[in-house]
Write a structure and sequence with these properties.
four-stranded antiparallel sheet, 193 residues, elongated, homodimer, alpha+beta, 22% strand, 50% helix, Jelly Rolls, DNA-binding
Chain lengths: 193, 193
DNA sequence: ACGCTAACTTGATCTATATCAAGCGTTAAT
DNA sequence: ATTAACGCTTGATATAGATCAAGTTAGCGT
């Protein structure tokens, strides 16, 4: 049954680029399973990220804190990679925290091991490049979105494009994710029903 | 004197990861020089990006258009890479245009050649990964910035962190880049003098 | 099942910033 | 040299969404 977790990871990685059996054996041996309870943190603001995660099951949120208010940056679900990735790459203090919104099952790999794998295998290096590209493309989209639309438009777009997350994530986090207050979110919700 | 342009590219690339002479010879042969006049476009919204650029000299701006209004996404200067990078990677229609703010000298490489180089050389693949990482880290920072600060705070932060761009870029573009109107920008400017 | 806390709703008010409008200075074209 | 076009400034007004405050609901721990 732990097999399933590694199979999920394998599917995810080979979705980017093919990997030989030998490479997979080495690669996969470096990942360990971790479980984390609801409300616990993968990492807190100001810490340096040493791990890169794969979410097998659960929901997590990334958020920064500004003057005591939380600013929700994003979410990770089943099949996503997670972690304070910019801190992980640059080894700078993380500007945000990652917290489990549900009990979650993850795989993690530490930075040293991952970087050794990058050195050792071109396929893994390629996966790293393509994964970075995917994240980057998503962030570029979101940047334009955030600046192009009103609160109402952003609400409706989220509703159309990711209806499932309304079930998974408390409204206040969705509101913050869309850059509005919980009150505004609630009013939009009422309006559209 | 064209040497200087290639030397600048070499310095930029090897700043990420070392590259052998043979690799460099092959890699550099795939880049061609392009010149572009002030106000001309590298790419327009809706087109698919086939090239990846290196700015030897000049200033460019990337902007999206929403309801006739321009939303400035970012700038490229001497020593930066440029292009509609997400369109280049995903081969989807670009959501933004790139326009020269000054007469500019660039190097460009087409996608096919670059991807062949990724296949051929692990060092180039690594450069690709690290370059993606750098862009990604920058975008993550900017995302948090854009959401954490008021117009005034954003203005002051830009003034402190990148005073040079006040000389290079018209105010209206800086205003849009910071997510405010030109009027608001002008008022903040007056206030702080 | 009960009580407590946190999430959500609803209404009243406030405010940062946008919008609209008009004028000024500088550059560029005729 | 004159005018047109554009970028910047300044003032008046409008508004989306925030903030503040109070009440309601729902989930969680004991």
């Amino acid at each position: 049954m732990q097999d399933k977790i590694y199979t999920a990871l394998k599917n995810k990685v080979t979705g980017f680029t093919p990997i030989s059996d030998a490479e997979w054996a080495d690669f996969s041996s470096k990942w360990q399973m971790v479980e984390i309870n609801k409300d616990d943190y993968l990492i807190k603001e100001g810490q340096i990220e040493h791990y890169f995660y794969f979410v097998f099951d659960g929901v997590l949120r990334a958020f920064a804190t500004k003057d005591g208010d939380e600013i929700c940056i994003g979410f990770s679900y089943n099949g996503d990679f997670s972690g304070a990735y910019d801190s992980f790459l640059a080894q700078t203090k993380s500007e945000f925290a990652i917290q489990a919104l549900t009990k979650s099952t993850l795989l993690k790999i530490n930075r040293e091991n991952l970087f050794l794998l990058f050195d050792k295998y071109k396929s893994i290096e390629r996966w790293g490049r393509l994964f970075n590209a995917e994240i980057l493309i998503g962030m570029a989209k979101r940047q334009v979105e955030a600046r192009s639309y009103s609160a109402e438009e952003k609400y409706l777009r989220l509703l159309n494009q990711s209806p499932h997350i309304f079930q998974l994530v408390p409204q206040k986090h969705l509101a913050s994710y869309l850059g509005m207050t919980a009150e505004t979110f609630s009013r939009l919700r009422k309006k559209k029903r």
